[in-house]
Amino acid sequence: MLGDSNECVFGIHSHHILMDNSAWPVVLETLSKTYNEVGQPMKVRYPAAKPIFSKRLYEAQAEKEAYWKKRFSTPLSGFYLPDVLGVKTAKVEAFKKSHVMYSELDVFRYIQTVKLEELRPEYGDLTLAQLIFEFGLFLLKKVGDNYIDIVTPITDTQMEYQLDNLQSSGNLLPIRVSGKSDGIFSSHWEDIQTQIQKGMINELPYEEIINVTNSNRDTLPTVLVTAFDLPEKYINLSDIQAYYLDIPPLKSPYVFMLAYCFDKKSRMIRFELTANEGINHFVAGSLLEEFVQLLSVKPNEIRNLQEISKGQIVTIDGKDSILKLVMQVYSEVLPRKWQIHDNFFNVGGHSLVATLAVGKFKNQYGLKVEMNDIFAYQTPYELSTHLSSKNQGYIFETEKKSVQAVDITEIDLSDVKTGVNYPVSLLQESYLWEADLGQDTKFNIPFVFKINMDIESDILRQIFIDIIMRHTALRSLIVVGKEDNSLYQRILSAEELEEQYWFSSSFCNDEEEAKTKAVLAGGFSFNLISNIPLRVTHLRLKECNYLSVLFYHSAFDEWSAKIFIDEFISFLVDRFNGNLVKKSWSKKNKNLQYVHFALEEFNNRENILTKGLSFWKKRLGILTEEKGLVICLDEKKSAVDLKDTSEKYTPICFAFNNKEKRVLNNLAVETKTSLFQVVYALVALSLYKLGAGEKIVVGTSMACREDYKYHQTIGFFTNVVLQKVNIRLEETFSELLNRLQSDILEIGEFNKIPFPYVVEKLAEKTAHNICEYYIQMHPTNPLNIRKKIGNKLLNIELLEQVVQPSKFGLHFEIFDEPLNDEKALVFLIHFNNTKYSEASLAPLVSVLKGLVSNIVSIQPTSKIESVINSIDWSSNDI
């Protein structure tokens, strides 16, 4: 008791061997319940001793040890401030007296409380991973080290504590925060979140982790970061008010212990920094204040950033208005919870998404944004700062502009006529004769899906009819003019579509039969004069279906695939729910048809071709015969001059793990380019290393969808563009990347000049093989779907299709797979099997793998000559 007052101090003390922090809520809630039920019979049960970690120690021990050895390839280490910031420092007055400081023996603890609204929007839901990441980088900047090891306490989250089974499940989890270690920049707190999750999956007692990682016990981590809860919320005593008294630890084995607590009721965040006797307590207090300020907004920023985070309308001029617009557009083209400092390319952005964003900025909101702006200013904050300097006075109001993502029902069919000969697009005109009007199957685009349920064929057929009727490209036939062989397209009506044979459905005996038939269906040879460019084969089993969906390239491209799958899933869900597909479209946001695009081109074709040819002639000069990568040619095949490419063919496949991909991606971020440009450059350098020459003609594809009104249009827009890659040994790697990117971005509207037309006009008469090398990168596959419908789970899986030999000599196809740790970046090398073989291309694979492996040592300032020489290879390795 405190004298004669009605207050008392009540203390509860326990040893950590018996209890951890997760047990306190149980103790305090039981105390409250016991007090409030005084006078009633009560049974008291005492805790039974249980072995610590009994259920976790011996599960998959070897795998867990392997994880920690790999995670910490170098031993755990401590963190120490320089002497100038330690106890030898003279008194520092920077720490505000308004903040709380507790002193007890050899420990000082500092407490600072801030309102949630005072933190930057990205810290509105401050997580432990974010705090570890930010505090780690904060300390690294003070000393300039490459990395810092931090420990955080964890408990068994699956343990359901009662008063009779209290025990300690507590453990320490080591986390490594990198500033720059092994070439990896820890550019996002999600890296730390992954470490925490994987660490808990592979949990071992901290003592064992120390042994497994060969760590010195004299230099273990000296920084601990944790979250805590305020205990008073668990005490509820009738007619009694309870307050929590701060009791700092008497001693601390850590240089710093940082803890935080979020009180939802008061919307306050409390930070506590405990420093041991090795730190000058005034310096430590100043560090806490500086760190919290780092997480906070400036007072004059609070109002506008609050409005942005709440999604309210900002009608003021300048940067805040544009920042809100950038956040809005990015949320539409790449749905996620965006923060103002998120890097566009680190969270899933790529050139196709950037194209979507540019179109939305221009056509939907009247703000001119260049593709290069998105590459150069990679966060919403950076981009808005740049744009505000060019667009002073711009006002973005959500009430005046549509900010909703385009609904799939918004499509314009109002002026499309059937039975009329429309012009084909320039791309179609250039490729259709080469494709033998559809009979050449190398232009087939086949998909084979496995669906985890049986769908009635009538329902499935009607879904495809709904899609076909929405997109004129899928119900158009090619018409050949009788007099001059000019090409036209004619759109079929619903009645004419019924006369087409494009859909078949049948039952199969087993999955092997169904899968085989589905794959074979992808080899169908079209006659586009009489066949629409789509063919669907439905193969049924009781428990699942296989579905072959075959498009012809004259009406479909990679961008179209995302449109198709979105509509297919939407219509399938509608049918399962008994709803009819809406036939209306919006006049507000017209998504035009491919025939509109063809008409637009036709009315301006001479100007397009004349200006385009002038650009490409200046860019490429005269195109000469490409002999191929001579050192990798298969001499046996070259000797007999094979023409038949029908022999069994398998592309070369290899992959890089997530750590290696992150190195590449972080290099792209540092140089303000993209992952594609880094990969593109490494492939070009590999070709140079093997004798492709100093000027390498490389093809790549461009979406050609800059115009927003065609973003939801299925059709053939994607074109191949050529680039002469000049390898300059005196350049730095950063200069090469930026030059390659500038060359691509400068193409602009000239990307629509058909590749065959450019080749025809610029190639020497005797040249037949103009483009030997082709590089293409695909974003995350959108065609694997898991969706809940009622009480059923719909699972649609895209299966691998039969691969055709390359249209080019060497076709590098790269797949970005962010959900696969071991195969995060997959390379397929397709090759012309009349010239190359898997064995003959072994040097190319070796050099390319070597460059990626050596990327750790490649800096943006590294000279190209040193990058190339880092690969130890000679012709004797063949």
From TrEMBL:
Residues 317-391 form the Carrier domain. It holds the Pfam family PP-binding. GO terms for biological process: amino acid activation for nonribosomal peptide biosynthetic process; secondary metabolite biosynthetic process. This is Linear gramicidin synthase subunit B. InterPro entries: ACP-like_sf, CAT-like_dom_sf, Condensation_dom, PP-bd_ACP. GO terms for cellular component: cytoplasm. GO terms for molecular function: catalytic activity; phosphopantetheine binding. The lineage of its organism: Bacteria, Pseudomonadati, Pseudomonadota, Betaproteobacteria, Burkholderiales. SUPFAM superfamilies: ACP-like (SSF47336), CoA-dependent acyltransferases (SSF52777).
